[in-house]
Amino acid sequence: MMKADQPKATATRSQPIHFRNVKIFDGLSDKLFDGEVLVQGNRIKEVSRKAGGIQAKGAEVIDGGGATLMPGLINTHCHMSYCGPQNMGHIPVEEHMMITARQAKVIIDHGTTAAIGAGSAKPRLDIVIRNEINAGYTPGPRYLACTPEITVTGGLGDSRQLHFYHNELAHYFDGPHELRRIVREYCREGVDVVKLMLSGDHLIPGFCDADQTAMDEDEVAIGTHIAHQRSRKLNCHARNPESIKRAVKYGIHLIYHATLADEESLDLLEANKDKHWVVPAIGFTYATAYEAGDFGIPPETAEKWGFVDELAKGAETMKKLHKRGVRVLPFGDYGFPWTPHGTETRDFEHFQKMLGFKPHEILRAATAYGAEAFGKANELGQVKAGYLADLVMLDGNPLQDLTLFRDQATILMIMKDGQYHKAPQARRKAVQRQAAE
Ligand SMILES: [Zn+2]
Q1: Measuring CA to CA, which residue among 200, 103, 192, 191 is closest to residue 152?
Q2: 85 preceded by cis ω (within 30°)?
Q3: CA distance linking residue 431 with residue 437, whole number of Å
Q4: For residue 413, how far is its CA from the centre of ligand 1 (angstroms)?
Q5: Is the C-alpha dihedral spanning 367, 368, 373, 376 positive or negative?
Q6: Other C-beta atoms within 10 Å of 167: how many?
């Protein structure tokens, strides 16, 4: 294997940055507080809850003008290389790498500073983009690189045809022996996360629907065993109760969808709520049900396939999980033609309207809880002394307006690892508002 060890493109800045006159959402609280933050190197050095509480000689002073300072968003179900409207499997790898780099920038431009890969569209796209981002050559969030979606013949992601050979997005296998080799290969290539497709989906009606479990238990057992042996994270596509139970039994910490959970699987998730995070990707179900007409799935078809029903059932399941204290996280399955990158925070509105989450619960899930799933609960997702300086500044109060992230002009500053991705801007909306009053 070729390992592209490159020198870093950027050096850590030495001048501290002092944010003053900001309202702070710290990642956990249910309210904003007035305060100040000092960033030194790549970390938050100090957080004060009062004006003038930080004295920092020689620091660059940023007067936020009352804007909100909060942790960068953490997307725990990110397909950085998924794109549209082309058939993704048919895009040559060279073009696909460039598209992935563009999308990495779109994602951080919208305030997401860390993301967990949920399936790479080609074997090494995730690995290469992660390396390029980490080396500082390509703008993008911190990223955990994932395998392609690993699926069985006839499972979700297998759209091959018998009469001619072509590959698609997924990596196919049958039997524990093949899977053992595949997971080892991807560990060798350098993935951080292994993705297994445990259940079917409404997207492939007729050959493996959402209520069917596609991957056999001996396959799940060996795939998870190798991943654990090599200290990799795992995530899975699991809609129905059987697949959810398998995910818990075999320690797959990130469970995607879980929309059709029954009482028994709800109990199991509750009993293991400190070990698992559920990411329903409700925005994808919503968009497929109602907004995918231009891409060949008119609402009548989506309804026939079961998406309307799935949306209602999924919303009910997530309400129950939330009530039971299971961490349910936003984002997921953006990057399809009808869910383009940059629109991920539509999930905030879905969580509020369909799942009944309160705004601070949504933002907490998108920051502090996302950091837990990322494996950096003690370093990411909070505005707290000692934590990594991944911060965004917003022109407004996100607890009152969950749409703020959808307008790039509202995101006044984006910082990752103590470096500006977007240098601080003046509060345009506030100025406009004052002028209008
Ligand atoms: Zn996905």
Answers
A1: 200
A2: yes
A3: 10
A4: 29
A5: positive
A6: 14
d(Cα 430, Cα 211) in Å, to the nearest integer?
50
Six-digit token string for 341: 């990158």
Give CA–CA dist 171/190, Å, rounded.
Answer: 16
pLDDT for the residue numbered 1: 42
pLDDT for position 14 = 80
Cα–ligand 1 centroid distance for 120 (angstroms): 10
71, 114 contact by CB (below 8 A): no
Q: What is the 254 CA–ligand 1 centroid distance (Å)?
A: 11
Regions of the chain short of the pLDDT cut 70: 1-7, 9-12, 429-437
Give the pLDDT confidence of 227-286 residue by residue, as tens digits.
999 999 999 999 999 999 999 999 999 999 999 999 999 999 999 999 999 999 999 999
Query: CA–CA separation, 426 vs 395, rounded Å?
Result: 9
Segment holding 433, helix H or strand E: helix 428-436
Tell me the CA–centroid distance for residue 242 and ligand 1, in Å.
Answer: 19
What's the CA gap between 391 and 412, in Å, rounded?
Answer: 11
- For ligand 1, the distance from its centroid to the CA atom of residue 204, given in whole angstroms, is 14
Ligand 1 centre from 119 Cα, in Å?
7
Instruction: Specify the amino acid at residue 80.
Output: M
Q: What's the pTM value of the predicted model, to 2 decimals?
A: 0.95
| Tokens 């998730």 found at | 269
Task: Report which secondary-structure segment, H or E, holds 74.
Answer: strand 73-78
Name the residue ranges covered by the structural domains of the chain.
17-71+381-436, 73-374
Give residue-wise pLDDT tens across range 362-396.
999 999 999 999 999 999 999 999 999 999 999 99
CA 62 from centre of chain: 29
CA torsion angle 58 60 66 70 (round to 10): -110
CA 74 to ligand 1 centroid distance, Å? 15
Q: What's the confidence (pLDDT) of residue 204?
A: 77
Q: Which CATH architecture group holds 17-71+381-436?
A: Roll (2.30)
What is the distance in A from the centroid of ligand 1 to the CA of 428?
36
Number of Cβ within 10 Å of residue 119's Cβ equals: 29
**332 C-alpha to center of ligand 1: Å?**
6
- Residue 86 has which token pair? 């082309």
Counting every residue written for the chain, the total comes to 437
Q: Does domain 73-374 have CATH number 3.20.20.140?
A: yes
Tokens for 323? 């009530």
Residue owning tokens 């506030």: 430
Q: How far is ligand 1, taken at its centre, from the CA of residue 109, in Å?
A: 21
